[in-house]
Write a structure and sequence with these properties.
434 residues, alpha+beta, Immunoglobulin-like, five-stranded mixed beta sheet, 5 helices, 22% helix
Length: 434
């Protein structure tokens, strides 16, 4: 077996040589360890110094510009005052309304003042530390134009009419540019005429429409009971582009509510929006005019029809008429209704109501019956004539309407509804013509 020479290590060196070598290497290792330790300590000191300088700089920045003494951590103040020369700006977290001191003051001057001062002051802050500026809290909408803080006074307009005696309408108009809506504030009506049919009381309500129409909605106010001076304070909106408003006509129809029959028209107001500046709030007082009936209409008649097939009896209830047109001045008449039953155009039987003295809005509520076989009923027609009674002759015809299955419009619809809903009373208003 191979063996090392005596007194030598496996590397072939003697103990004396090995000790000398160790003694030579040890100082080098010790120097290297000491160098690494010094570098590590220096790095730690530098990091601590940088953090301390940043913290001290942010604290001193806020304290020097806000007038608050920095204690402990740097917290953003709730109030920041920045001074530049002789001007001063205060930014708060509270939203307080600001009213202009005079008409010469504008939001443009406030915005320019704000931009100049922030250019001078915040540039130096950002040069010192971006972190300190980011920590400040600003109001998001500061400097933006807020029209609600600078309201303009309403322009009050008067719209008069020679046709007086129907009262006045009080309304306010403006255009909402945020939602593209025409806003109609229906405020009140005054001095409405008293109703002849309800013992001097009126139950007025108002319908509002744009002509031409913009949608199919019916805009109607609430009903005010037993008053000639109703107060509404209700708002209605019409979706219409601002450029199209000038081509519209705003129409108010004032009605007297009637629970049991057709509502009576008190009057109307028409406003040409092309002549009104609605970009600002416009308050208007308008004289209510008499409602204009369609050409050729001489009044209206309310008739109820019903047929009892077991008894083969046709019942016609003449309820009332309204706004009868007569040639007398002042307008007055002694109206009654004459009914004529026709079969295939031939006059078969005639009946009439009682006479109502001195009224153009008579109320009868009288039922007139005719015996009509069920197989003949589809061939039957009815002529309703409103007559002005005359003691000498037969009287003058004020107006008439014809009901039957072949008649156009409402006259035919009323008769056919009676045929399809027998045993049930069906009431409908009909226009009177010559």
């Amino acid at each position: 077996m191979y063996s090392h020479p005596k007194g030598k290590d496996p590397l072939g060196t003697s103990p004396t040589d090995f000790g000398v070598r160790v003694a030579m290497v040890s100082p080098l290792l010790l120097g290297a360890v000491c160098g690494v330790s010094v570098v590590a300590v220096a790095v730690v000191i530098i990091i601590v110094y940088i953090l301390y300088r940043k913290r001290h700089r942010a604290t001193s920045c806020i304290a020097s510009h806000s007038g608050y003494e920095a204690v402990g951590e740097c917290k953003p103040p709730s109030l920041l005052s920045l001074t530049s020369g002789s001007q001063e700006i205060s930014i708060t977290k509270e939203n307080r309304p600001v009213q202009p001191r005079s008409a010469s003051m504008s939001t443009t001057s406030r915005g320019s003042l704000r931009s100049e001062q922030f250019t001078d002051d915040t540039s130096s802050l950002s040069a010192k530390s971006d972190a300190s500026v980011d920590s400040l809290v600003f109001e998001a909408n500061f400097g933006a134009i807020r029209p609600d803080l600078y309201p303009r006074r309403d322009v009050v307009l008067q719209q008069s009419s020679l046709d007086g005696g129907h009262g006045r309408l009080h309304t306010r108009l403006n255009y909402d540019f945020r939602t593209s809506d025409l806003v109609v504030h229906m405020i009140e009506a005054q001095d409405l005429p008293l109703s002849e049919l309800l013992g001097g009381f009126s139950d007025p309500y108002i319908r509002i429409a744009l002509v031409p129409s913009v949608d199919e909605r019916i805009r109607q106010s609430s009903v005010k009971r037993k008053t000639s001076n109703p107060y509404y304070n209700e708002r209605f909106k019409f979706p219409v582009a601002f450029d199209e408003v000038k081509d519209k006509l705003l129409v108010f129809h004032i009605y007297d509510y009637d629970k049991f029959s057709r509502h009576n028209v008190i009057g109307e107001v028409q406003i040409d929006l092309g002549k009104v500046e609605i970009s600002n709030s416009v308050e208007m007082w308008c004289d209510i005019q008499k409602h204009q009936k369609a050409s050729g209409i001489l009044g209206e008649l309310l008739v109820s029809l019903s047929y009892l097939p077991t008894a083969e009896r046709l019942t016609v209830v003449i309820m009332k008429a309204k706004e009868l047109t007569v040639s007398n001045n002042p307008p007055s008449a002694d109206p009654y209704v004459r009914l004529t039953l026709l079969v295939e155009g031939k006059k078969i039987k005639r009946k009439k109501t009682s006479v109502i003295r001195g009224s153009t809005n008579p109320v009868w509520n009288e039922a007139l019956t005719f015996n009509v076989p069920a197989d003949v009923l589809p061939k039957v027609g009815l002529e309703c004539c409103v007559m002005d009674h005359d003691l000498i002759g037969h009287g003058e015809i004020i107006g008439r309407c014809m009901l039957g299955p072949e008649r156009p419009g409402k006259e035919g619809n009323h008769w056919n509804e009676m045929l399809h809903n027998q045993r049930k009373s069906n009431a409908m208003w009909h226009n009177l013509r010559k």
